Amino acid sequence: MGILHDDVVIIRQSEKEGDPSVVTVNCPDKTGLGSDLCRILLFFGLSIVRGDVSTDGKWCYIVFWVVCKPTPSWDSSRWELLKKRLVDACPSCSSASGFLYYRSELLPPKPPDVFLLKLCCYDRKGLLHDVTQVLCSLELNIKKVKVSTIPDGTVMDLFFVTDTRELLHTKKRQEEIYKTLEDIMQDPVISCNIERVGPEITACSQASPFLPSAITDDIFRLEISNKLPSVSSNDVSVMMDNTLSPAHTLVHIVCQDHKGLLYDIMRTLKDYNLQISYGRFYIKQGRKCDIDLFIMQADGKKIVDPSKQSALSSRLKVELLQPLRVAVVSRGPDTELLVANPVELSRMGRPLVFHDITLALKMLKTCIFSAEIGRHMIGDLEWEVYRVLLDEGASLSISRRKVEERVWKLLMGWE
Q1: What is the spatial distance between Cα 264 and Cα 38, in angstroms, rounded to a whole number?
Q2: Which of 50, 68, 214, 270 is the most buried if burial means most Cβ atoms within 10 Å?
Q3: CB neighbours (10 Å) of residue 3?
Q4: Is the Cα dihedral 202, 378, 410, 74 positive or negative?
């Protein structure tokens, strides 16, 4: 089966502000493709307001209706870059005479090179968010960060990053990053350096795989209705039906919309190795979402085991109610913001979390004394945990609950 290269992903931009643009993907199928595509759309800051998915198990046809906040950065080149990233996420194909053909034997992708970006500059409010925004706009994925403020008013930022464009080893790409960072600085940059790091350096930089029990108690025993503004469990419905299709289990979901909702559903199904044969998603009035998914197991059968149905239903409800954990806690005399999100079994983390955390703190005019990102095993799941030590003076003037609420709402797209 062949398809013209330009037809793998087609983007029809909206003609009127506020109307959705339409993204169509027509390519070979694979388990988890929907999750990978939704993750890219989330990384580009797009909200999915409607979606249709259909596949015969070998070839799939997916349509997303997406909207974005109007910004100067959304020009034709940005849409072309989005298209390239979506094409890259589709199953490997070979090219012949302008046509693409499905190649069933897929080689595992090579892990991307990790680079260490060292930035030393004068500190100011909102600096960390401005730097993070630059790195995200340049398609650098932040794998780990260590930020420390020095008493003389300078700050040392260490970012372990990978480059989506795979060009960070080149002088031209590094100079592009230096120049963009210099443009956002109010004071001269003291030093900025980028170097590739080997696995031994990356391993040494990793945090302990376990967190102290005091921290896990704080962020993993949250009562949603008491601690954070959220939807009630009564507002989320996950129902399964095996009577409507001879070969599929229907999963019907009704819930409130949030940032990355479809990604949260798709990554959960990906982790369970479930395939969507047909699906429809749309947002009704009042930001209520209605989702129908016809799914099957890897063996091509519907889910009939009640225990498997219950486990999947419970996991989906958790992801719909609280896809991230947020808490502000005391660490001795200091105040620390903790944010955690589950990591996919494929080791992919949720995009733009650090970006949104730093943006929320910038909006609150709260200074960051230090910050770090690490991955930790909690129970039988791997979590990406963001630990941000707040400036002692600023933290005293703003209530913990206000910090929690602002960070939570921004991460959920409710700001």
Answers
A1: 9
A2: 270
A3: 16
A4: positive
How distant is the alpha carbon of residue 177 from its chain centre? 22
Q: Rounded CA gap, 259 and 208, in Å?
A: 30
Full-model pTM: 0.87
Cβ contact 177:194 at 8 Å = yes
What are the pLDDT digits (tens) for 296-338? 999 999 999 999 999 999 999 999 999 999 999 887 778 899 9
Of 143, 170, 127, the C-alpha closest to 343 is 143
Among 58-62, 231-235, 352-356, where is mean pLDDT lowest?
Answer: 231-235
Residues 6+ apart with CB under 8 A from 114: 143, 160, 161, 162, 196, 197, 202
Handedness of CA 29, 320, 312, 253 (dihedral sign): negative
For residue 323, give the DSSP letter: S
Compute the 3-state secondary structure of the chain and give helix, strand, coil in percent, each to the nearest 5.
35, 35, 35
Quick check: helix, strand or coil at residue 98?
coil
Instruction: Enter the DSSP assignment of 375.
Output: E
What span, in angstroms and rounded, lies between the C-alpha atoms of 411 and 259? 7
3-class DSSP state of 312: helix
- What was the pLDDT predicted at 224? 45
DSSP sequence for 163-174: ETTS-TTSHHHH
How far is Cα 286 from Cα 138, in angstroms, rounded to an integer?
35
Task: Tell me the residue ranges of DSSP E strands in 212-248.
Answer: 237-241
Query: How many other β-carbons are positioned within 10 Å of the β-carbon of residue 388?
Result: 25
- For 87-141, the pLDDT digits (tens) are 999 986 543 334 444 444 445 567 889 999 999 999 888 999 999 999 999 999 9
Amino acid at 21: S
Q: How far apart are CA 238 and CA 236, in angstroms?
A: 7
